[in-house]
Amino acid sequence: MMKKYILALGTFMITLSAFAGEGMWLPMMLNRTYEDMQEHGLNLSEEQLYSINHSSLKDAIVSFGGFCTGEIISSEGLILTNHHCGYDAIRSHSTVEANYLRDGFWAMNRNEELGNPGLFVRFLIRMDDVTEQITNELNEAMSEEERAAKIAEISEQIVENVGSEGKGYEAEVKSFYHGNEFYLFIYQKFNDVRLVGAPPSSVGKFGGDTDNWMWPRHTGDFSMFRVYTDAEGNPAEFSADNVPMKPKHHLPISMKERKEGDYAMIFGYPGSTDRYLSSFGVKEAIELHHPAVVEVRDLKLAIMREAMDADEAVDIMLASSFAQTANYWKYFIGQTEQLINNHVFDKKKAQEEAFRSWVNADESRKAKYGQTLDLLEKGYAAQRENVVGNVYVLEAGLLGANTTLYAFRGYFGLQRYMTLEAEDQASAKEGILAKADEHYSEMHLPTDKKLMASLFALYAKNVPADQQPEFFATVAEDYNGDFAAWTEEAYNTSLFTSKERLADWLDNPVDSILKSDMLGSAGADLFKIYQSGGNPEADEMLEKGYRLWTAGIREMNPDKMYAPDANSTMRVTYGNVLSYDPRDAVEYNFYTTLEGVMQKMDNDDREFIVPDRLVELYNNKDYGQYANANGELPVGFISNNDITGGNSGSPVINGDGELIGCAFDGNWEAMSGDIFFEKDLQRTISVDIRYVLFIVDKYAGAGHLVEEMDLVYPRKKFLGIF
């Protein structure tokens, strides 16, 4: 019997591994995948997943700030998301004297919860298919530019017709399958979101950039916030009179054991994938785009790190910018490596050859799709010479130093200011100076100057002269090509590096002073290059080529369900908790424990510091109710779910609708997955909810937060005598 059991289990695991977790599915379309979800272990009804008439799982999921995902985990509006999603909010409340990034933060009562101006959450109310309304107004005689204009016009009308259905409601129309389908989304937005708790970075960011995108992982990547409403439950701006939200649904917390093969489902807001990318696009990414991004960010990170290591105040000030830069620096390194290792170009080429054969086998298909691959090939060829320049104008130019973007926006903002009536200028001045305060609070002037000078110099070195901004020629002629000297003078004279100079100008706005501002005009020059860096002919070919390719590949395989690319709308992915074998003689378990944290501990390395309190709890094996059946404290686990950026903070939910973890990363071996899903390799890395609760309760002493959650325990076996 034992041998049969082992064989059956092994067969089951092979089946699960072979069945791809590919697919970020729109929640209103889960009827298409529902039976398969049940086969994988789902015990809920379709109505419990997504409903517009009753509470459902979707009502516990929020778009967190528009850049991450969060989930409601109590009847009092408590939100769980990632530590890196809450990172900037934590940083904004941190000082050298109270360094919450380093030491963590926990509100021991509601009065200690901290407001975050500008931070919001959005709940999805419903989505509607508006494809027919839009496509009925389109025709093949339109250029892609004309088509886009008509789509925008009709979408605006659809949004206007929705009207104000409720307080805080917002609507938007999104394109899917490269402009072949369209859906309307209606949200409710809440602006009073308060920081409740965060572990120290030595827990929430344990492993740092070294472990980023890697498995095995030992990071407690979580933070907690709370949504507040007015007394009637409506969205409201921050006020002492506001009360914790009473959500339509919140996720219960599973205290059950994890096993390989357990059902795992993720709701969230994935940002962007490119699964329909052609072989020509893969080639461009590997050879041109990704290396350029990495080279710029290499330099940017080195400059910031040097300043951060020298001063704790600077470390706090630049922490968010450094983390954001580093995340996608490593992402592009990993994606390039895995596009090559996983032979994605060859896989795409094979798809295209099969498509070409299918098209050529039928005259009607040749008439409809015959130009598709030629459009894509010619489009990429036409834009090839501008790819690196387009990277640099953003990465080293407009988005390089903080002041560059601030000056660019300010330059055009002050031009508008001069056109205002005197009474309007008075109110506008207050807003402009408030923005200046915000900018200066997040800018370390010496580092910013060094970034600007160094990044501009790299830009001048690596990009052809005809793709450089005009002021680079001035630097070459008047400053002997010394960008440090040019930057020094610019910072000493610009309106955008001194609040006092800016305030004086606002009192006496002189056009000639603004036009001669070195940083303002540099920003305008960079924007000109950004605008001219595109190739309208290439854009036209690629837009049409991808629209036809996406429609054609779906028509060629009518029995296959194709999920649309991610575009920051709510999606559902499902699969199972699974280990994997990344390479010869290597097998990765599906979970990690606190033992691994201690094995990695190195208190001389800022990425691998372990707090004394955590060491003490480990030494005493004081895990409380959060240990697994083996007496270990689980930290992370992996599943074959399909996620990407924007899914950070997403709930991992079991077959009974209970929270088992919080997703925060993908794995290194499948970093090409945003372009081609690797069914045998792709894994989602999540922090186990039991580790989250352990840190909150046993480590931080914030057990009151656990008490407001609904913990679900495994049923005890009946031991009575029959």
From TrEMBL:
A single MF term (Gene Ontology): serine-type aminopeptidase activity
Gene3D superfamilies to which the protein is assigned, alphabetical: Trypsin-like serine proteases
Family matches, as InterPro entries: Pep_S46 (IPR019500), Peptidase_S1_PA (IPR009003), Peptidase_S1_PA_chymotrypsin (IPR043504)
EC number: 3.4.14.-
Domain of life: Bacteria
Cell division keyword on record: no
Keywords from the named record: Aminopeptidase, Hydrolase, Protease, Serine protease, Signal
Cited function: Catalyzes the removal of dipeptides from the N-terminus of oligopeptides.
Name of the featured protein: Dipeptidyl-peptidase
Biological classification of the source: Bacteria, Pseudomonadati, Bacteroidota, Flavobacteriia, Flavobacteriales
